[in-house]
Design a protein that fits this description.
- The structure is a single chain.
- The protein is an alpha/beta fold.
- The protein has helices at 14-19, 28-37, 44-55, 62-78, 93-105, 110-116, 127-135, 161-165, 187-195, 209-219, 226-236, 240-254, 262-269, 277-285, 289-301, 308-324, 333-340, 347-378, 388-400; strands at residues 85-90, 117-121, 144-149, 171-178, 197-201, 223-224, 259-260.
- α14 (277-285) runs antiparallel to α15 (289-301) and α18 crosses α19 (388-400).
């Protein structure tokens, strides 16, 4: 790669921001690549307004529609209401696995499943075999279940269109296609929408994670301290499958307790309550260089648990949200919290507001530019043979000076 010219963080085209809507916070490397490629005039007012709309549009609760759709499908199954075809696709495997797991283990009794459950795997599945299985009638049961797992690896899956158009009512076909979607413009995609149940999952936004995790914990019959909740979310990120696993592991170790504390997250998830990315953002908010260096020193002694590739995106997400404060056009913290999608009482929201006040707009812009610069250095561009900890120390010194 050639030399990367210095860039202004405000050098964006609004139309380009639109295309980054879903992955803007999740895919930091894509953001850096976009920054590198940008070469347009400063559009400060437009940038602030468009970034606000892009990251937090009016329909910011869209991801919960996805969760509700999964819950609705499973809820219908529990009531005995079935459709002949369910096509589950998209970017969030957790919801797909949730529905597939229920279909495999709960729709039929153990005795019925012995004769009436057929499972295909996309890599080895032939569409003719799938259709033949779906056309069979159930044995000693009202219905049979046919599953296609990992359907993104299946060849000629669109040839199932003939069956989808005229399915057997006693067969429940459930297809899981991860990280891929059918083309809704083609006849097969249109057929799925009219003849079956089509669910498209999407990755969850960072600001939606605390609410989702809290609801998941409550659903399991437990409660979690707000600080412990934020620590878990910041440590794991938007890997919903891993979040669920870490919660299950923690719950098992609680024994008779129903309350998850910060100590539980530290002991059972394996993240320090004093030295973590959440505490690093808090220290940066207060320009506490000494604390920042202590935390980075801890990261250096635990490089596998705290790689720079996870730390930089977390810091970028924090400063990008702090930048939204300047375009919010309100001084009311309750309105601002609602706009950003956080509780006005949460420590993370208070840090966002504190960061905006401490750094001011120019300082937050500079922090974002430094994150871009040190992301490039972390992969060897403009810096060779320097340790990750040294890069982080150098970066926070510049941020807090």
């Amino acid at each position: 790669m050639g030399n990367v010219p210095p860039l202004n963080v405000l050098d964006f085209q609004p139309i380009a921001l639109k295309s980054l809507r879903l992955n803007f916070l999740q895919t930091y490397s894509s953001f850096c690549s976009f920054l590198t490629a940008a070469n347009i005039k400063n559009t400060r007012p437009i940038f602030r307004q468009q970034l606000l709309k892009t990251l937090y549009p009016a329909d910011a609760g869209f991801i919960f529609l996805c969760c509700m759709s999964v819950e609705k499908i499973i809820g219908d199954w529990k009531k005995g209401a079935f459709k002949p075809v369910y096509w589950l696709e998209g970017d969030e495997p957790f919801f797909i696995d949730q529905a597939m797991n229920y279909a495999e283990h709960k729709i039929l009794s153990e005795a019925e499943a012995g004769f009436n459950l057929t499972v295909f795997y996309g890599k080895d599945a032939e569409w003719t075999d799938v259709v033949n299985a779906c056309r069979r009638y159930p044995m000693f049961s009202e219905r049979q279940v046919v599953l296609i797992k990992e359907a993104q690896q299946m060849k000629d899956y669109e040839k199932l269109e003939g069956y989808v158009e005229n399915p057997l009512k006693s067969t429940i076909l459930v297809v899981g296609m991860k990280d891929k979607k059918v083309d809704g413009r083609k006849s097969f995609g249109k057929m799925l929408k009219t003849k079956g149940e089509l669910l498209t999952t999407k990755k969850m936004w960072d600001n939606e994670l605390p609410k989702w995790v809290a609801a998941l914990i409550n659903q399991k019959g437990f409660i979690c301290d707000p600080r412990a909740l934020q620590l878990l979310v910041e440590h794991v990120g938007n890997d919903l499958g891993r979040l669920n696993s870490e919660i299950e592991k923690t719950i098992i170790n609680l024994k008779d307790r129903k309350h998850i504390t910060v100590d539980d997250i530290e002991n059972y998830v394996g993240v320090s309550k004093e030295y973590n990315t959440l505490e690093l953002t808090h220290a940066l908010t207060n320009r506490n260089l000494s604390k920042c260096l202590q935390i980075i020193q801890y990261f250096e002694s635990n490089p596998k648990a705290n790689p720079i590739q996870l730390i930089l995106p977390t810091l970028y997400g924090f400063f990008s949200k702090a930048y939204l404060v300047f375009g919010a056009n309100t001084n009311d913290e309750n309105e601002l919290a609602k706009l950003l999608g956080y509780s006005s009482y949460s420590s993370y929201f208070k840090d966002l507001v504190g960061c905006a006040k401490t750094y001011r707009q120019k300082g937050v812009e500079q922090a974002l530019l430094l994150l871009h610069e040190y992301n490039l250095k972390s992969i060897g561009i403009g810096s060779m043979g320097v340790s990750d900890a040294s890069l982080l120390k150098e970066m926070v010194v510049k941020m807090t000076s």
